[in-house]
Amino acid sequence: MRSLLKPGLSVGSIFDINLQSLWDSGYRNMIIDVDNTITAWNNYTTNPKLKNWVLQAKNTGFSICLLSNNNQTKVKQFALELGVIAAPKGGKPFSRAFQSALAVLRSTKHNTLVIGDQVFTDILGGNRAGLFTILVDPIDSREFIGTRLTRVMERLLAGRRPICKSQHQQK
Ligand SMILES: [Mg+2]
Q1: Ligand 1 centre and the CA of 35: distance in Å?
Q2: Which of 68-77, 85-94, 156-165 has the weakest average pLDDT?
Q3: Number of domains in the chain
Q4: What is the reported pTM?
Q5: Residue 79 lies inside a defined structural domain of this protein
Q6: Is there a cis peptide before residue 93, judged by omega within 30 degrees of 0?
Q7: pLDDT of residue 1
């Protein structure tokens, strides 16, 4: 169980990810969480820095699919604004959520990676589905009440280091 909670890679934010190196390793598709991974929790507004990163990933060759447990209408709209696709439904960490993302990406678990800020949804689910997982620090300390509880579990069970709020103010 413990190994399923361990990400393949752990970085401060999406901007610290070496896109070219992942491409060179054979990855072609990204399943990306939304809240606190690419935007502050429940704040579905795009910004130039994020748009530029998405463009950079797409220019590298990656196909991107957003996978979120939040309101699906909002997620789909956000995906549209970013010029990427959204999985038909959420439901992380269950395998069917990741399978639905793989299906719309027309990809396989071997060439697809998962990026997210939560150990018990993004990392556990991604690992169980056989995907390479990348854990990012949450963008903001503000989040869904249920998530605040799982943060304690992340530290206790997954050995996640405490996140210093000032570290991740998005610039
Ligand atoms: Mg999240």
Answers
A1: 4
A2: 156-165
A3: 1
A4: 0.91
A5: yes
A6: yes
A7: 62
